Each structure stands twice: as structure tokens, then as C-alpha cells.
Amino acid sequence: MILDHFRLDGQVAIVTGAGRGIGRGIATAFAEAGADLALAARSVAELEETAAKVRAAGRRALVQRCDVMQRADLEKLVDATLAAFGRLDTLVNNAGGSPPKPALRTSERAFEHALRFNVTTAFLLTRLVVPQMVRTAGGGSVLNISSVAGREFAPGFVAYGTAKAALSFMTGELAQDFAPKVRVNAIAVGSVRTKALADALTPELEREMIERTPLRMIGEVEDIAACATWLSSPAARFVTGEVVGVNGGLVGLNMALPRAFDG
Ligand SMILES: NC(=O)c1ccc[n+]([C@@H]2O[C@H](COP(=O)([O-])OP(=O)(O)OC[C@H]3O[C@@H](n4cnc5c(N)ncnc54)[C@H](OP(=O)(O)O)[C@@H]3O)[C@@H](O)[C@H]2O)c1
Predict the structure, then answer these.
(1) What strands, in cross-sheet order, belong to the sheet with 36-41?
(2) How far is the C-alpha of 133 from the C-alpha of 138, rounded, in Å?
């Protein structure tokens, strides 16, 4: 049966940024598809809420406090996952983000922070995880949560867009390095209703974003989780190095920020 190919039975997955939003949505979907989960973020209270959803789906959950910006925390995350579950099949590099800001007001520090948070942390964790996937499971899958902002040019997105473009490009590079053992894919996410978006959303902005999106909607975390489940499952065993768009058909950003010399 084709739907059986989308199951993750017996797999162990790490999801970073699993305390809320897209990370929680992916972790919950993976548990429903049969995986055990190592849940990583800084807020343990939020991770516990996600863990309750994983356990309600009948799967095991490890809650691991982890700041992805700290190398030692990444090492502890991998060690704790292996100690708890004895194997590792899937990694989702989801923790990331950076608020949009005009280029001339983006500091060196903010620019470098965006690169480290969105790209370097995913590189470091992938580098730690891949040998363990091969050793304990014979191979596996890495999924990077990128953004349509890493594909379309727009004013105000120099730090975030450049960082997500690098994450998307790194996806293809690592897919070549790790084939045929480990597949590496990414999702170019569009606007999805999470706390990160809600904090910036006014009713007018929401109307404008929907109007500028060809499918006339803001996505839900389940829209990303469905694609993540496919890419991490045997149904995608012939897919690697891809950046799959889940963004309502955007061919430009649905948020217009001022240019440096407007007005
Ligand atoms: N929502 C959208 O519209 C959208 C669009 C395109 C791309 N994306 C991408 O999707 C991903 C998730 O975004 P989201 O909207 O779901 O964000 P969110 O709702 O703000 O959730 C972010 C998650 O990441 C965790 N996190 C933040 N900083 C961390 C750190 N240093 N170390 C470990 N975990 C950390 C947060 O927990 P703690 O704060 O407790 O650590 C939380 O669990 C990001 O990579 C983002 O760029 C989102």
C-alpha cells in the first residue's frame, strides 16, 4: 500500500526547535507516523508539551534542553539521543529565523548571528549526526527548514534571506557528500501561522500577505509537517538534494518592506 511507504515506524528522529510552531508540528506528525523523538530547544516547559503529544501518539519522547548556538549542547543532544534510543535515523534542522531589517540598519553582529543561527548550527549538527546514522541505522535522512526568503530577493531580508539561501545551497552540497547513505533535503517554507509570525502580524498585514499569495492563504504547521514526513520517509528514498517549496506558490515575497532610499 502506497501510504505504508510514508510511515516512519521504528525510526528515531531529532527535531530542533521542537517546543512550538513548525518544529512541534513536525515532531507530532513524525510520532503519528511511528517515530520516537528527541526534542530540542531552550524552553523545557514547551518541549514537555510537545513530548505529551508524542506520547499521546504512543511513541517515546526525549526532552533535551539545547541551545543550538552552543556547540557543547549539540554534542550533548546527539549523545543523549543515542543513550535513550540506541539509534538515529532522521534529523530535522528546524531551529532558525531572524527578523527582517533594512540592510543599512543590519549590524555586522546581526548579520553574522543570522548566518550562524540558520546555517552553521545546521552544518555542525549534521556533521555530528551523519556518522551516527550510518553506524546505528545504516543511513538516514536530514531535513533543513529553509524559507522562500532564501530564493526570492526582497528589500529588508539581507541577513535572513542570505542565510536561508546558504542553508538551501548547503542542502545540495551535503546531499552530494553523503549519498548514497544519507539523503539531505530542505523545505522552502512560506508564511506559516506560528508564534514567530503572529508576533509580526496585524490584520492589515495578514490581508496583504494572503492577497499576495497565489493560493490565497497563510499556511498551517501541518502543511509543513506533511512534506517533512514525506521527505523523511521511505516514500522519498529516491529524493535527495531537493529544496521543496511549501509556500502557496510564491514567486516573490508576500511582505513588502521599504527600500533603503524610498521616501
Ligand atoms: N513561520 C513562518 O512563517 C516561517 C516561514 C519561513 C521559514 N520558517 C522557518 O521555520 C523554522 C521554525 O520557525 P517557527 O515559525 O516555527 O518559529 P517559532 O514558532 O518561533 O519556534 C521556534 C522554535 O525554535 C526554538 N529555538 C529558538 N532559538 C533556539 C536556539 N538557540 N536553540 C534551540 N532552539 C531554539 C524555540 O524554542 P526556545 O525559544 O525555547 O529555544 C521554538 O521551539 C525557522 O527556521 C524559520 O526560519 C518559518
Answers:
(1) 61-65, 36-41, 12-16, 90-93, 140-147, 182-189, 243-246
(2) 6
Q: From the CA of 124, how far away is ligand 1's center (Å)? A: 18
pLDDT digits (tens, 9 = 90+) for 121-178: 999 999 999 999 999 999 999 999 999 999 999 999 999 999 999 999 999 999 999 9
Query: 195 CB less than 6 Å from ligand 1?
Result: yes
Query: Would you put residue 243 in left (φ > 0), alpha (ψ -120 to 50) or beta?
Result: beta
- Going from the Cα of 258 to the center of ligand 1, the distance in angstroms, rounded, reads 25
What's the confidence (pLDDT) of residue 201?
86
Predicted pLDDT of residue 199: 84
Instruction: Verify whether residue 160 is a known catalytic residue.
Output: yes
Q: Is the dihedral of CA 170, 172, 173, 177 positive or negative?
A: positive
Find the domain containing 176 and state its range. Answer: 2-246
Region 18-33: what's the mean pLDDT?
98
Q: What is the C-alpha end-to-end distance of the chain, expressed in Å?
A: 59
For residue 261, being part of any structural domain is answered with: no
Instruction: Assess whether the C-beta atom of 17 lies below 6 angstroms from ligand 1.
Output: yes
Distances 128 to 88, 96, 125, 203 between C-alpha atoms, Å: 11, 18, 5, 43
Catalytic residue among 160, 167, 184, 189: 160
Task: Assign residue 11 the CATH number of its domain.
Answer: 3.40.50.720
Predicted TM-score (pTM) of the model is 0.98
pLDDT at 40 over 80: yes
Is residue 260 situated within a structural domain?
Answer: no
Average pLDDT over residues 49-73: 98
